[in-house]
Amino acid sequence: MDRVILHSDLNNFYASVECLYNPEIRNKPVAVGGDEEARHGIVLAKNQIAKAYGVKTGEALWQARQKCPGLVTVQANFKLYLKFSHLVREIYDCYTDQFEPFGIDEGWLDVTGSTGLFGTGEKIANEIRKRIYEELGVTVSVGVSFNKIFAKLGSDMNKPNATTIITRDNYKTTVWQLPASDLLYVGPATTKKLKLMSIRTIGDLAQCDTKILQGRIGVVGLLLHRFANGQDNSPVAKKGAEAYIKSVGNSITAPRDLCTIEDIKAVFYMLSESVAARLRGHGLKCTGIQIHVRDKDLFSCERQAQLVFPTCLTKEISDKAMEIFISKYRMVKPLRSIGVRGINLVPENYAFQLDLLTNQNKREKQEIVERTVDEIRARFGYSAIQRGIILKNKDLTGINPKDDHVIHPVGYLDGKII
Amino acid sequence: MGKKFVSVIAKFTDLGKVTPLSILWNDGRRFDIDRVDDARRAASLKGGGIGTRYTCMIRGRQVYLFKDEDVWYVEVE
C-alpha cells in the first residue's frame, strides 16, 4: 500500500500572524522585516497584497517601499511566531506521531497509519486546514501524495488555503508540467545546467536518460531523476527524533560595521559564548573551529582550523576564532557580519591524547565554571551573569545569540546524498 | 474592529478548569455571565488574536469572551 504523506505549509506565515493581531492593516500591503536601525532591514515575509506589488522576500525594506509606496512594515516578533508554530504542531499531533518539521512554518506528516481512524489523506488535510484557520486564524496549504517530494510540490501549487492531491494517476499531468526549478535541490546553477540540456520541466527531467544526467550534473542528477519520477522513499521522521547535529554555530550582522580588532574580539567572544553553551547543552565538544566573515561590500568567506583538544570552553573557541581571523584573513574593509562555528563534533566524554605541558586540571575547572554559568542563566535569566568584555561593548553585544535566534535552517537530505 | 481588555471574576477548580463568572467593565459596571455554552481554542478575527474562547450568555445575549494566556478580552465593533 502507498504511504499517505501530507506537506503542510503556513501561508505567508509571519505576515499572516501580524495581520491577525492587527485587524486595521489586514487590507493593506504588509511586509514583516527585521530592525532597520540594527541593519536587519530586509523583507522576511509579505502578505498577498504586497506580493501583488512585486515585493519579494529577502530584498531590502527600502526597495520594497519603492515598489509599493503604501507598504506597511512591521517588525518581526519571533517569540509570537514560535508560539504559533508550536500550537500548529499540537494540532498535527492529533493526527500522527510522525511529523518532521522543515523550518518554522512547514513540515511533513505521515498519516498512513491514521487513515483508518480519520479517513483519507484528503479528508485529514481538509480537517487540519479548517482547524488551523478556526483555532489560530491563519491559513495553510496542504499537499497530499505518496512521497515527500510530491507532497511538497502539491502544497506549493495552490495558495492560499487549499488542498492539492497528487496521485500515481495524476502526477504526470500535474507535477510534470511544473518548471524543474520548483524541485528541491534545483537551484539557479542546476537550473542553468538543465536548461543547456533542454530540460525545463520536471517531466523533461523524469524522462531524461539517467546516464546523461549523471554525466552532466553528477550524482545529484540521479537523485533528481528519482524525485521527478516519484521514487523518493525517504521516511517522515518520528516526532522527537533529534536531528543529527553536524555543527553548532552562531553569526550576527552587527548594528554597526566592525572596524577594529577590539570590536571583532568582543563579538567573537559573545558568539563563542553561545556556541560553547549550546555545545554543552547537546553534550558535545568540537575539535575544529570555522569562522565566517562578510565585509561591508557583502564579500564573504569562511576559514577554518583544527583545535588541539576537543572543547566546549568559550575562551578556547573565541581564542581560536581570533587566531584564524588574524592568520587567515586580511582585513581591508570594515566588517558587516561575522560568525563562529564549532565543527567536527565529538561526544563530551570523548577520549583524547593529553600532552605534558597543558594544565588539564585548569581546563576541567573552567568547564565546571561555565556549566555553573549555564545553570545560573537557566534560573535567573541570560543577563544575570555576564563577562566584562561583553559589558564594555554593549552597543555591539547587547543580544543573547543563544535564545534570541532559535530558528535554525534545515536541509532535506541532512548531508546525505543517496 | 478590535478588542477590549476586561477584568474578569472566574472560578478555578481543583482540576485546573477555569470558568468566567462575571465581566467587570472599565466604568464600574458588572455583567454576570448566566451560562457558558462552549469553551475552545479559537482565533478572534474581529479582535485580533487567539486564545480560549468562552461562548457566554449575558442577559440573553451571546458574547465571546477570550482568554489569551493571563489576559481576558472581548471583541468590539
Structural overview:
The complex is a heterodimer of chains A (418) and B (77). In chain A, strand 5 and strand 6 (106-110) form a beta hairpin. Chain A folds into four domains: 5-11 and 80-165, Alpha-Beta Plaits (2-Layer Sandwich); 13-78, MutS, DNA mismatch repair protein, domain I (3-Layer(aba) Sandwich), CATH 3.40.1170; 176-228, DNA polymerase, domain 1 (Orthogonal Bundle), CATH 1.10.150.20; 248-404, Dna Ligase, domain 1, CATH 3.30.1490. With 418 residues, chain A is an alpha+beta fold. The relative contact order of chain A is 0.10. The two termini of chain A are 23 Å apart. Chain A has helices spanning 13-21, 48-52, 61-67, 78-93, 115-118, 121-136, 148-157, 188-196, 202-207, 210-217, 219-228, 261-281, 314-328, 360-380, 388-392, 394-397, 401-404, and strands at residues 5-10, 30-33, 43-46, 72-75, 99-101, 106-110, 140-145, 163-165, 248-258, 284-295, 300-311, 335-347. Chain A has a five-stranded mixed beta sheet with strand order 5-6-1-7-8. A four-stranded antiparallel beta sheet of chain A has the order 9-12-10-11. A three-stranded mixed beta sheet of chain A has the order 3-2-4. The mean pLDDT of chain A is 87. Chain B has one domain (2-76). Chain B has strands spanning 2-12, 18-24, 30-32, 35-44, 49-58, 61-68, 71-76. A seven-stranded antiparallel beta sheet of chain B has the order 3-2-1-7-6-5-4, with no helix packed on it. The model of chain B has no long low-confidence stretch (mean pLDDT 93). The interface between A and B is medium-sized, with 12 and 13 residues.
